[in-house]
Request: fold
Amino acid sequence: MRNTLLLIAAGAFVAACGGTAQAPTLGSNGQGIHVSELRPNGKDHVRGWAKGGSHGGGGGGGGGGHHTQSNGIDYHGGPVMLGTTHIYYIWYGNWSGNSAPTILDNLANNIGGSPYYNINTTYYDGSSNHISNAATLAGSTTDSYSQGTALSDANIQSIVSSAISSGALPMDTSGLYMVLTSADVTETSGFCSQYCGWHTHGTIAGSDIKYAFIGNPDQCPSACAAQTTSPNGNAGADGMASIIAHEFEEATSDPDLNAWYDRRGYENADKCAWTFGTEYTTSNGANANMNLGGMDYLIQQNWVNAAGGYCALSY
Reply:
């Protein structure tokens, strides 16, 4: 059975994929970092946009005022991530004895080339270069609580910076670095109450690096997991799979927060958050909607930038 959000924050909110949202005033929670986030089930999905859809963050800017509109989502002139996108995992906290690495490594190794990720090929840059249906898990490392169990937005960037500066992961401007947290780790700017995950970019060692926070739904399953009985018998990891897909799709189509988003500030995955399309039942009674690399997943739909625009599981 689907869980519904139990926590409603003050301010604007909207049902997923419906209604009219008023995005919060451009802000950074005191951290100086602007992000795009996946809101908990039943809530508005965007943090860090200016009202009215004007959009810039983390030093990115607004794309020079370049706008094109079609299919329900607008292009604002910024870059997209081209070629094979490299995914990097930073396993933060305690993952001992947890099946999450098996489940989520398989996701990262098989989402590229899938009918699902092919949706992102409908997005392109100002020279009409389209995103490729190509991605790979290019590296992973562990971080045993270097910043403690209560993380700020700035701590997330520090975790990524440390992984790169130590040589644990390469410096890669064509990559997305994801900080995956164990269930005992929280993010103090609003994990579970304001968001389930987010992505942004920042200058690390002189380069523009894209990175994301992926919270563990085991900490708040009613807010950040679609179901408690999950396809692979690990509700936290299976819930993270959909959050990872959400942030990955947005980071490749809007890496510097100045490329693809709609008049409300919604990026492609925001427009379909917490909608799952056609589902089937797995052998353990869980719901799933796709099989990647021999494993079942329940992953949210993504917005197809074609034929007027629509939420779907494939293109």
About this structure: The chain has one domain: 36-58+75-312.
